[in-house]
Fold this protein.
Amino acid sequence: MMSALAAAAFFVLSAVQKKRGSSCARSARTVGVMFAAASLMWCVDGVASLLGGEPFLDLSRGDFVLGLIVVAAGCAVYGLLVLRGKAKRTA
């Protein structure tokens, strides 16, 4: 669920940045696609769990921490993409 919310947030951020003419819009869209792909992966995992007789969502603490790590890693990737873009423009 966290990756789907993060994907939506980064797609909205991309649209706002594009409307403002910011050069970071592409970075936000890239990270949004990464989060959307992670959401798809979690859905496939949920279907596999259902087929195995387990619940679709596992709301354990371990999965919550994993979701936070995934969101933090995606935000770090966004930061690196923005920094790389700024370095290319100043060079």
About this structure: The helical segments are 2-20, 25-51, 61-90.
